[in-house]
């Protein structure tokens, strides 16, 4: 057999529509009505301001830990904006603004970030799974839901989010392979934010892109400017349409940057340089989109201020509600709930032991 190059049917593309300098590729721009454009902007701004507020609350010791979204607003808001309510959203742990778009309240996020399990219950309402902290695990859950949707001949799609670091987990490969083989209606959104805590993207893979990994599994992959909300909407629409039409999964690599700390327990100054952070600040998704909306006549200083103050008030109201609710939370007995439908004997024993100790403490106190 001669030595030949064989053609691989699936393709890998890149996509950028609204570039960092504000120039727009009109031909590629997706049709988005004015109300939706403003809603996209509002949520991106909400994501940014909510982050800032939670960081402050954590520094004041008023909440526990929180993984910020800053810099990744377009990578999250763009994809969820194309979902129908009946579609499924399966997040990892950094998708606060995507969760809010899907209906999760700010107060439940604050309650979760304070370590109370009560905050998690609302996160799983509707067709949304709650946060999944074990890196990559949620991708398999998403594929399972997708396969189930297909089996039941439903027209719903599943969108799942994960990071660049997650692509080094076995779960990523199993999920991608299974989804492609069974043509599960899944849209994989990899937020390549360049870092997995202190491990840079260059240590996750020798591949030129994450998008190209799709080809090996037999699905299209696209590398999108993840700080360009228009490109994220366009690529996500295409992928969701494919999935809904029975054409199977797509991998979208959103090239973006984690502008802030990994979580509030991290100090990125120990492993990355200020000029790298500054170079990404110039590509900020929010200022870029605000510039576009101003050019279009949809936004001006006055409107921006109106949105800012409405957001500030709604965040404050959520903080107040969460702090009020948390006053009556924190029973240590809660740790035995929600893991098993029927508690194993050893846990039952520990539960009784703790109950006894707390009672005795109460008697002494
Ligand atoms: C299986 C597993 N291993 C390690 C961790 C600790 N951990 C939490 S986040 C993280 C990095 C994840 O990086 P990436 O997938 O790029 O997501 P990002 O944090 O950048 O959003 C690690 C190693 C974990 N939560 N789960
Ligand atoms: Mg990452």
Structure overview:
- The protein is of the alpha/beta class and 365 residues long.
- It folds into two domains: 12-329, 3-Layer(aba) Sandwich (Rossmann fold); 331-365.
- 46% of the residues lie in helices and 10% in strands.
- The chain has 13 helices and eight strands.
- The chain has helices at 34-59, 73-81, 96-101, 106-113, 118-123, 137-151, 170-181, 213-217, 229-244, 274-281, 285-295, 301-326, 345-364; strands spanning 12-15, 88-90, 158-163, 186-192, 195-196, 199-200, 221-225, 250-255.
- The protein has a six-stranded parallel sheet, sandwiched between helices.
- Strand 5 (195-196) and strand 6 form a beta hairpin.
- Helix 1 packs across helix 2 (73-81), helix 2 packs parallel to helix 9 (229-244) and helix 6 (137-151) packs parallel to helix 7 (170-181).
- The chain is globular, with a radius of gyration of 22 Å.
- The chain starts with 11 loop residues before the first strand and ends with a helix.
- The mean pLDDT is 95.
- Magnesium ion is lined by residues 163-165, 193, 195-196.
- Residues 94, 133-135, 163-166, 193, 195-197, 258, 262 line the site of thiamine diphosphate.
């Amino acid at each position: 057999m001669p030595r030949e190059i064989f053609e691989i049917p699936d393709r890998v593309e890149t996509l950028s529509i609204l570039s960092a300098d504000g120039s727009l590729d009109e031909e590629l721009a997706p049709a988005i009505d004015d109300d939706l454009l403003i809603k996209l902007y509002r949520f991106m701004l909400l994501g940014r301001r909510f982050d800032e507020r939670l960081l402050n609350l954590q520094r004041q010791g008023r909440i526990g830990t929180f993984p910020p979204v800053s810099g990744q607003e377009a990578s999250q808001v763009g994809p969820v904006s194309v979902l129908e309510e009946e579609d499924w959203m399966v997040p990892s742990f950094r998708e606060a603004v995507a969760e809010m778009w899907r209906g999760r309240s700010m107060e439940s996020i604050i309650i979760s970030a304070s370590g109370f399990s009560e905050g998690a219950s609302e996160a799983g309402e509707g067709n949304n799974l709650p946060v999944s902290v074990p890196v990559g695990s949620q991708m398999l859950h998403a594929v399972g839901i997708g396969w189930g949707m297909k089996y039941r001949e439903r027209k719903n799609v599943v969108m799942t989010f994960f990071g660049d670091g997650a692509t080094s987990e076995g779960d990523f490969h199993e999920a991608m392979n299974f989804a492609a083989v069974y043509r599960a209606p899944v849209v994989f959104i990899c937020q390549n934010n360049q870092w997995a805590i202190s491990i840079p993207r260059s240590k996750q893979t020798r591949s030129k892109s994450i998008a190209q990994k799709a080809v090996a599994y037999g699905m299209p992959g696209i590398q999108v400017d993840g700080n360009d909300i228009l490109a994220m909407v366009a690529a996500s629409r295409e992928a969701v349409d494919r999935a809904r039409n029975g054409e199977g999964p797509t991998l979208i690599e959103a090239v973006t940057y984690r502008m802030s700390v990994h979580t509030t327990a991290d100090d990125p100054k120990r492993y990355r340089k200020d000029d790298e952070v500054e170079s990404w600040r110039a590509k900020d998704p929010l200022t870029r989109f605000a510039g576009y909306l101003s050019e279009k006549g949809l936004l001006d200083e006055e409107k921006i201020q109106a949105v800012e103050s409405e957001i500030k008030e709604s965040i404050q109201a959520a903080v107040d509600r969460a702090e009020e609710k948390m006053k009556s939370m924190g029973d240590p007995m809660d740790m035995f709930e929600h893991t098993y439908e029927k508690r194993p004997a050893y846990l039952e024993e520990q539960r009784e032991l703790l109950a006894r100790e707390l009672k005795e403490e109460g008697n002494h106190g």
